[in-house]
């Protein structure tokens, strides 16, 4: 069964962890043989932006010593054969149109969303 994981909530648990748990679970599921793909929408479209860095994240006297490397995590999913889609409309809403994206991500306009969803047996929204 093919599963599309829609990730809309960005930077979930990235203060406590060194990665996004949903991106991580997609890696794990693909490694176990599952047919999974990803759609980044909402604030999570930022995950596909090339050159981003969470180095220097600090709150008061606490510093994140193991920051997430989301650009690498998304590129790695693409390299494993996971289709990573990014909603064009959400990219535009965040002023990221024309900003370099991770190689391999697929830009999806809003009017193509129904056809994309129809290609999956399960759709999980995070």
Counting DSSP E segments of at least 2 residues, the number of strands comes to: 7
List the total number of helices.
Answer: 4
Poorly predicted runs are none
Evaluate the radius of gyration: 15 Å
Quickly name the level 1 CATH class.
Alpha Beta
Q: Number of domains in the coordinates?
A: 1
CATH fold category name: Hypothetical Protein Ychn, Chain: A
- Structural class comes to alpha/beta
Quick rundown:
The chain is of the alpha/beta class.
Give your account of this protein's structure.
With 126 residues, the protein is an alpha/beta fold. The chain has one domain (2-125): DsrEFH-like (Hypothetical Protein Ychn, Chain: A, 3-Layer(aba) Sandwich), CATH 3.40.1260. It is built from four helices and seven strands. It has helices spanning 21-31, 70-79, 88-93, 113-118; strands spanning 2-7, 35-40, 58-59, 62-63, 84-87, 106-108, 122-125. A five-stranded parallel sheet has the order 6-5-2-1-7. α1 (21-31) runs parallel beside α2 (70-79).
């Amino acid at each position: 069964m093919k599963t599309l994981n829609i990730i809309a909530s960005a930077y979930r648990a990235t203060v406590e962890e060194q990665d996004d748990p949903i991106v991580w679970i997609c890696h794990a599921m693909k490694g176990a043989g599952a047919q999974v793909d990803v759609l980044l929408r909402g604030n999570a479209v930022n995950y596909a932006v090339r050159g981003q860095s969470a180095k220097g994240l600090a709150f008061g006297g606490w510093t994140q010593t193991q920051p997430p490397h989301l650009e690498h995590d998304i590129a790695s999913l693409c390299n494993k054969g996971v289709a990573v889609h990014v909603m064009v409309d959400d990219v535009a809403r965040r002023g990221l149109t024309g900003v370099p994206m991770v190689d391999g991500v697929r830009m999806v306009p809003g009017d193509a969303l129904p056809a994309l969803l129809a290609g999956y047996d399960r759709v999980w929204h995070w």
